[in-house]
Every structure is written in C-alpha cells, then in structure tokens.
C-alpha cells in the first residue's frame, strides 16, 4: 500500500465529523458580495462544490483556479479570497463542518485536535461526473434543511461518502499522473536506445505496467503505439544518417536498430514513400 493510501485510510479511520451547515450560493449571492469573498482569518472549515461559473481562490497568497465541476476546500486560520467576474459568477454548495480525530486506547477514547491537518486531498479537485455530484449535493442540502428525524446522521453519512469519493478521485488523478510520467520516461528511453533491441514487454516492465495497459496509455498519451513510435524515431534518425554519404544502407539500418537491411528498406519505403537509396539522392 502506498504512503498516500495509508494517510487517507488513517484519516477516515480516525475522523469524527460534525456538520455545521449546508448552504447553496447562487449568482444572486455572488452579486450581493460584489463577486468577492474575503476573510483575513478563516474561522470555519468548509468544503465547496462549484456547479456553475468560474473564479479563483487565493489561499495564503497562493492562487487556485475554480471552475464548474470542481471541489475545493480550506482549513481554519487562513487568509482567503474567492473572486469571480460579473459575466461568470461562481455558484456553489458549501458544507461547513468541523472534526476531531479519535483514537481508542483499550476501552477509552482519546480526542485529538486536527490542528493544521486538512482533508486528505488537494485544495482543488476536479470531479468527473458533474450531474451526479450536483444531485448528491442537492440531496445533502435537502436532507439538512428538511430536518427530518435522523437528518444529522444521514447528512454526516452522505458527507463522509462524498469525502471518500473525492479522496478516490484524488488517488485516480495521482495514479494517472504517475502513469503519464512513466510513459514520458519510456519515450525518453526509446529516443536514447533506438539502436538497441526494443521490445514492448521490456518497455512495459521498465514502466512497472502490464504490457496491455502500457500499450493503451502509450497510445493515449503519444498518439502512437509503442512499435509505431519506435519505428518513427528509428526512421527519423535513419533519414539523418542517409544524408551522410559515407554510410552504406546496411550500415544505416544497423545504426538505427534494424538487423535486417532488407526489412529496413521495406519499412522505410512503406513509411516514407521512397526507398532509402532514392531518399539519399533526393
């Protein structure tokens, strides 16, 4: 299990949540606030979901773009500015909350103040399913304000499920980012080792990915399959070498990783449109 996975599990295992309020802020509210919300020292933890408009959150001097479909949050005791334009007023749900951590010691409970701890994901997280998120926040808002029997527990449960969903999205984004880095490293490896035997299985192993998943990610990120990219790099290098008249076609083939000059000539002709010898004389 990765370190960030452990951190997220530890957070949810220990948290004792209290919801303070659930609010919906529309363009009328943005207008009433002159399209800016300022706080020199935030006094309440809040998680917000933007369902329309766009703007910026400035937290302790650091700017974060806000947009429809994103979740954002801020902890206590921070300098905060949320602003937007008249043309695109930011509309959002906000869940004001507080929490403590509890730890069992035998049959006793020890309470811990979160301090500077924040929720186990980035300050801004893009969520993939806008309609589902909007429906869930609207449902939470309705439960909270209808005040039916058991509404506090139902609201807390819905909010914890929402936090888990955001946490899983954060993990998904991080995994995609790690995978993207692996593909970039694979591309770099191909550019530096094009003259050597390059097998898709070997490249996937270096990237710590299965062969099939590696191929899918490589195609998604580069537009080429691994074999197509290897061929492209080799032929680009071959075109440069062919301009050096002292190298034979066989020498060029071997220099760029083709052990069979005839196969090299066939691939070159198919991809470039002319045979290597004709290309050299162009």
Order of helices and strands: HEHEEEEEEEEEHHHHHHHH
* CATH level 4 superfamily of the largest domain: Jelly Rolls
Derived structural class = alpha+beta
Number of continuous helical runs: 10
Distance between the termini: 57 Å
The whole-number mean of residue pLDDT values reads: 90
Largest sheet: 6 strands, antiparallel
Provide an overview of this structure.
GO terms for molecular function: DNA-binding transcription factor activity; sequence-specific DNA binding. Keywords: DNA-binding, Transcription, Transcription regulation. Residues 184-282 form the HTH araC/xylS-type domain. The protein has 282 residues and is of the alpha+beta class. It has 2 domains: 3-175, Jelly Rolls, CATH 2.60.120.10; 194-282, Arc Repressor Mutant, subunit A (Orthogonal Bundle), CATH 1.10.10.60. 49% of the residues lie in helices and 24% in strands. The chain has 10 helices and 10 strands. The chain has helices at residues 3-14, 27-32, 130-146, 151-193, 200-206, 211-222, 226-242, 249-255, 261-272, 276-280; strands spanning 15-25, 36-39, 45-52, 54-59, 62-67, 70-74, 80-84, 91-105, 108-112, 124-126. The strands form 2 sheets. Strands 1, 3, 6, 8, 9 and 10 form a 6-stranded antiparallel β-sheet that branches. The protein has a 4-stranded antiparallel β-sheet with strand order 2-7-4-5, with no helix packed on it. β4 (54-59) and β5 (62-67) form a beta hairpin. The mean pLDDT is 90.
């Amino acid at each position: 299990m990765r370190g960030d996975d452990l951190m997220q599990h530890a957070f949810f295992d220990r948290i004792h949540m209290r919801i303070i309020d659930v609010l919906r802020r529309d363009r009328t509210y943005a207008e009433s606030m002159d399209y800016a919300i300022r706080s020199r020292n935030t006094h309440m933890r809040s998680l917000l979901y933007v369902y329309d408009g766009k703007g910026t959150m400035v937290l302790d001097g650091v700017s974060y773009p806000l947009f429809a479909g994103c979740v954002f949050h801020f902890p206590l005791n921070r300098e905060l500015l949320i602003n937007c334009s008249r043309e695109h007023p930011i509309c959002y749900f906000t869940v004001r909350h507080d929490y403590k951590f509890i730890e069992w010691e035998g049959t006793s409970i020890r309470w811990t103040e979160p301090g500077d701890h924040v929720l186990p994901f980035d300050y801004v997280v893009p969520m993939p399913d806008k309609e589902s998120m909007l429906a869930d926040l609207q449902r939470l808002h309705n439960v909270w304000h209808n005040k039916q029997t058991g509404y506090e527990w139902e609201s807390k449960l819905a909010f914890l499920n929402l936090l888990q969903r955001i946490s899983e999205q954060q993990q998904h984004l991080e995994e995609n980012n790690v995978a993207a880095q692996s593909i970039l490293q694979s591309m770099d490896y191909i550019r530096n080792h094009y003259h050597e035997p390059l097998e898709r299985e070997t490249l996937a192993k270096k990237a710590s990915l299965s062969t099939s998943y590696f191929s899918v990610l490589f195609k998604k990120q580069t537009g080429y399959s691994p074999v197509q990219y290897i061929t492209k790099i080799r032929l680009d290098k071959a075109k440069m070498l062919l301009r050096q008249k002292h190298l034979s076609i066989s020498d060029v083939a071997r220099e760029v990783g083709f052990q069979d000059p005839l196969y090299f000539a066939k691939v070159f002709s198919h991809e470039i449109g002319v045979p290597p010898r004709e290309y050299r004389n162009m």
